[in-house]
Structure formats: C-alpha cells, structure tokens
Write a structure and sequence with these properties.
Length: 234
C-alpha cells in the first residue's frame, strides 16, 4: 500500500519504517474499507498535482475547530481526544501502516465520527492546509533520531515550524511531549530560531486531561523523565 501524499516531497525523511509485522485479516479489512472513507481528499499527488491548498470545507463543513496529531502511533490519544471533544475535528497523520491499522480499529470500536486520517508524511498535508486552519497540534513522543548525524530529521525543526506557522491560527497551541532530554532541548532551540512561536509552558507534568500513551508508559518504566512543552503560535 502506498501512503497518500508523499510523492514529490523534496524534504528529508523524518519518519522510520512503513511496515511492521504482518497484519491480521481484520486489520487488512479496515485498511481496505474504512481508511478510504477517512482519508482527506486532495492530498495525494495524483488528486492534486498542482499542490493547491485545501478548502476548509473539504475537512468539515460546519466550521468546527481542527486539531492535528503528527505521528499518532496506535491512535490511542487521537481517539481519546475525538471522543472527549466531539465538537472538534481531529486529523491524525501516521506513515506506519501497522499503526494506522491499530488506530482504525480503535476508531471503529469507539464509534467516533470526527476523525480524518492521512497515512503519509505529515508535512505533505500541513503544506496544503488552509492558512490558519489549525487550532491545536500534538507532537507526542516523536521519533528522537538519537544519532547526531540524524538530528536534522527530527520533526521539531525550524523548517517544519515554518510550515506549521502558516497552517496554525494565531493563539493556537503546539503541544510537544518527549522523554528524550536532548530532543526537548533541540525543540527549544528550534523555537528560538523560528519566528512565530514561543514556549509558554515547559514542565515535567502533563497537560490537564492528559490520557497518557503507551510510549509514555514505556518511558516511565525505563526510568526516563518526560518533558511537556506548550508552544504558542504568536
């Protein structure tokens, strides 16, 4: 399966593998039947070769706030937020096929109807978002790319903050969680170098209403201390 929206992106890779272990029959069914209904039209290059920005009505026609989660893993946080905030539209981006299949299972089980999925590089979607169309963005336990030569692949970069600056409304929040101290410092430095954002909270305590994630649980079990950054689009 080819992820929608990746072809033609000139930027360096910021995600790891696309496929994991073999999918179950039920998961394959979700990818074939549910995913096409949740994909965002106009993102795939074959649908939008001119890379024309999306109209807000393509996402939701009622003008609701739109939140984006970059790299949703297995979708537990994405579905939690969708169920807790039915008045909000949630977009989840994830290139890892097995994670997408897990999220689809959670979406179907929860019966939430306010989720859209982009199963590809988040940047391919962000660059097409209506200007100021995002009210909140989540970047939760992103791939740390720990080797120094790979730091430029980290999502929290000046380049990607520039994409988000255009897509986020003034006053919107970017919530970033990581258990890698070096990644947190890298993010702080990127914010300092990128216009349009400022750090308004930098804490070892999660945000109000935080449901936790399996990645966080693994970090705590391993003795790593998570950091929760709130960046304001100014």
């Amino acid at each position: 399966m080819t992820a929608a929206g990746d072809a033609g992106l000139p930027r360096r890779k910021v995600f790891g593998r696309r496929h994991g272990k073999r999918l179950r029959v039920s998961q394959q069914r979700l990818l074939e039947q549910l995913l096409p209904r949740l994909r965002i039209p106009g993102v795939a290059p074959m649908e939008n070769p001119g890379r024309v920005p999306l109209d807000a009505g393509v996402l939701w026609t009622d003008g609701r706030p739109v939140w984006l989660e970059v790299g949703f893993g297995g979708g537990e946080h994405l579905v939690h937020q969708a169920a807790a905030h039915p008045e909000v539209g949630l977009i989840g981006c994830e290139p890892f096929v097995n994670g997408v299949a897990m999220a689809l299972g959670r979406i179907e089980a929860a019966g939430v109807g306010n989720v859209r999925i982009h199963d590809g590089d988040a940047r391919g979607l962000i660059e097409l978002m209506p200007a100021g169309g995002l009210a909140r963005v989540f970047l939760l336990y992103p791939d740390p790319w720990p080797k120094a030569r790979h730091h430029r692949r980290r999502f929290a970069s000046v380049e990607n903050l520039g994409l988000l600056r255009r897509a986020m409304a003034p006053g919107a929040e970017l919530l970033l969680a990581t258990d890698i101290a070096d990644y947190a410092e890298h993010a702080r430095e990127a914010v300092a170098a990128a216009p349009g954002f400022e750090v308004v909270a930098d804490s070892g305590e999660p945000w109000a209403g935080w449901p936790g994630t399996r990645y966080e649980a693994k970090a705590l079990e391993a003795g790593r201390v998570p950091v929760y950054l709130t960046l304001l689009r100014v």
